[in-house]
Amino acid sequence: MSDAKNTTQPTVIAPSLLASDFAHLADEAAKVAPEVDWLHVDVMDNHFVPNLTLGPPVVKALKAATDVPLDCHLMIEEPERWAVGYAELGAHNVTFHAEATDDPVTVAKNLRAAGSKAGLAIDRDTPVERYLDILPEFDTLLIMTIKAGFGGQKFMPELLDKVRTARSRIETGHLDLRIEVDGGIASDTIEQAAEAGADAFVAGTAIYGAEDPAAAALALRRLADTARKTDTQEGARPGER
Ligand code: DX5
Ligand code: ZN
Fold first, then answer.
1. I want to staple 198 with a disulfide (CB 3.0 to 4.6 A). Which of 54, 91, 144, 181 is the partner?
2. Which residues hold substrate (predicted)?
């Protein structure tokens, strides 16, 4: 299994604000800022998923309130219409769902042209194989490890086969993109996700449900680093900013 691990990029830890106190988002961002790489922002439109969360005005306010790069996960219909707006607000990475559009490549090109990284999300019931050929258009591949829509669900280890498949294509194709996992990532699941080939880890409940969210994020980073790297390793630190 060790050949599935990518050890060239620093681990990214991305707390999901979905599990934080929405009345105090700036404070919740500040709590974790020293220990994390991205802030994961779950945008849900009550159509693509049944849940409803937040949209551009809140992302704009968050952007002004924190220096931590924003990782916007759009669980919305019509990403070809809405995704670029998040890039224009200064999101670091904008991920939309493969299931929500017939033309993911055009959306990715538009995101990059607008100045953000482009991410493709694959929900629980979607095979990854059909998207392997378009991975060069993307900077991030988000593999859901639950069904998208709600936080606090149980991690589904069988979905890590998609991570292994994608990691293998990335290695053989010498592609430059991250594999992010989202859903049920916690101290008892992050190592298996890392061993499968993930290098970016979203965690909502495991970080914001902890008494000390920053300490919880650091603990997750250490577990992921150890699982990803068996050779010499610089200590835990925020990766790319
Ligand atoms: C759910 C969201 C996740 C969610 C994860 O659709 O995409 O980002 O916040 O929450 P946990 O870590 O609690 O499973
Ligand atoms: Zn998410």
1. 181
2. 16, 73, 149-152, 182-184
3, pLDDT greater than 90: no
Catalytic residues: 42, 182
> Which residue carries 């991920």 as its tokens?
95
Tell me whether residue 151 is annotated as binding.
yes
Residue type, 55: G
Q: Compute CA distances 200 → 4, 77, 79, 171, 220, whole Å.
A: 15, 24, 22, 16, 11
> The tokens of 238 are what?
């925020």
Give the ligand at the shortest distance from the Cα of 150: 1
- Domains annotated on the chain, with CATH: 12-228 (3.20.20.70)
What's the whole-model pTM score?
0.94
- Encode pLDDT of 100-120 as tens digits: 999 999 999 999 999 999 999
Question: Best of 70, 146, 185, 208 to mutate for ligand 1, by most ligand atoms within 8 A of CB?
Answer: 146
Q: Are 40 and 17 in contact (CB under 8 A)?
A: yes
Beta strands, E only, 55-183: 70-75, 93-97, 117-122, 140-144, 178-182
